[in-house]
Amino acid sequence: MLANAVFVATLIFLALGFGLMHELHFLVPWRNLILHRYWQPIAVYCALLFVNILGLTIWIERKFFLRDAGRKLTHLDQEIHSGHSALSEEILSQFGNDEEQL
C-alpha cells in the first residue's frame, strides 16, 4: 500500500510541478537568481507538499480500498474457528489453537 501511495503521490507532485512550470514561464529570465536566492525555501516547500500529498493518498487508499477489511477478516476468523471449511483444518494444523496459548 505504501509503494502505491508513493507512486501516486509522485505522479501528482510531478503533474503539479509541470503545471506550475507552464504557468510561470514568464520567470525564465530570472530563473538563476530565484534558484540561487530561494533554493532552500523552495526545497522545504516541495518536501512539505510531497509529504502532504503522500498523506492524502494514504488516507484515500485506506478510506476507499481497505473499507471492509475488518469485516472480511472477522468473517474469515469465524469461518476458520467453526471448522466448516477445508481451509480451517489446514490453518489449525499449522498454527494450532492460539486461544489456548493466551
List the helices and strands and how they pair.
Elements: H1 2-23, H2 31-65, H3 69-82, H4 86-95, H5 98-101
Helix pairs in contact: 1-2, 3-4
Describe the structure.
The structure is a single chain. The protein has 102 residues and is mainly alpha-helical. The protein has one domain (2-101). The protein is 83% helix and 0% strand. The protein has five helices and no strands. The chain has helices spanning 2-23, 31-65, 69-82, 86-95, 98-101. Helix 3 crosses helix 4. The radius of gyration is 25 Å and the shape is rod-shaped.
Give a quick account of the main beta sheet: strands, pairing sense, barrel closure.
none
The share of residues in extended strands comes to under 5%
Query: Which regions contain 5 or more consecutive residues with pLDDT less than 50?
Result: none
Structural class: mainly alpha
Q: From the alpha-carbon coordinates, what is the Rg to the nearest angstrom? A: 25 Å
Report mean pLDDT, rounded to a whole number: 84
Helix-strand sequence: HHHHH
Shape: rod-shaped
| Total DSSP E strands | 0
Give a concise summary.
The chain is mainly alpha-helical and 102 residues long. The protein has five helices and no strands.
Which labels suit this protein?
single chain; 102 residues; mainly alpha; 83% helix; transmembrane helix; transmembrane; membrane
